[in-house]
Write a structure and sequence with these properties.
The structure is a single chain. With about 240 residues, the chain is mainly alpha-helical. It contains eight helices and no strands. About 65% of the residues lie in helices and about 0% in strands. It is elongated and about 80 Å long.
């Protein structure tokens, strides 16, 4: 895969090092303790966090996915600058990111903070990298699914930056802000550790970059094939 004139690789590697350092420091329990008590998380059922930020944010995300799908055929605004193939890439990149997070959640046995004994639950604390261990809880908490409702849109930056750098920067900023809000809301409720949100952002960034590289390679091959056919027709 080629990442021409892209900060993809350096950003990915630096973020990976920082995430691994956070995990190695075991800082998740400390961060969870900022909102949790031995009797649970007081904000777990908070109407704003549970109803608006969590459920409302999830619903809004799917509305945006449907809107992006419609713009494949009826583009609006800055999306008119994109080819139909690039508009498809926007939609498929979001779905690929959500799919990757969902698959990982189903395969992982880590339980959420509100299930941990330190916060009034029944599960023992186990690192989300210990895939072989069962913590005695329901599991399925890593990575953060709700944060992916925002971070899944990170792939849009790769498409927009080639045609509308300003719009791409705004897209990136809004996506990161929404993901941070979703992640913080779940952190405050005890639904996820901070690392779960950060890893979701990293995974969605990687999926978005990989999707972009694959899409560009496919378009380059189509262009090269069309040029070869044209040359063959001209020389016939």
């Amino acid at each position: 895969m080629r990442f021409r004139n892209s900060p993809f690789l350096p950003v990915t590697l630096v973020a990976l090092v920082l995430l691994l350092a956070w995990d190695a420091a075991g800082a998740d329990l400390w961060a969870a303790g900022l909102f949790g008590t031995p009797f649970g998380f007081p904000l777990r059922q908070n109407w704003w966090l549970a109803g608006v930020v969590h459920q409302g944010g999830k619903n809004l995300s799917w509305v945006l996915v449907i809107a992006l799908l419609l713009t494949v055929w009826w583009p609006v605004g800055v999306l008119r600058r994109l080819s139909r193939g690039e508009r498809w890439q926007l939609v498929l990149g979001v779905l690929a990111s959500v799919g990757a997070i969902t698959l990982l959640k189903h395969a992982n046995h880590t339980s959420c903070p509100w299930d941990i004994q330190a916060f009034g639950g029944v599960a023992a604390y186990v690192s989300h990298w210990d895939w072989s261990a069962r913590d005695g809880g329901p599991g399925g908490c890593f990575p953060a699914g709700h944060a992916s409702a925002a971070f899944a849109f990170l792939g849009g930056w790769f498409v927009l930056r080639r045609h509308a750098p300003r719009a791409a920067a705004i897209w990136l900023a809004l996506t990161l802000l929404a993901g941070a809000v979703f992640g913080l809301g779940q952190q405050m409720r005890g639904a996820h550790y901070l690392s779960h949100t950060l890893w979701t952002a990293w995974i969605c960034w990687v999926v978005g970059g990989a999707t972009d590289a694959l899409a560009r390679a496919w378009r380059d091959r189509r262009t090269a094939r069309a040029e070869a056919v044209a040359r063959a027709g001209a020389s016939a």
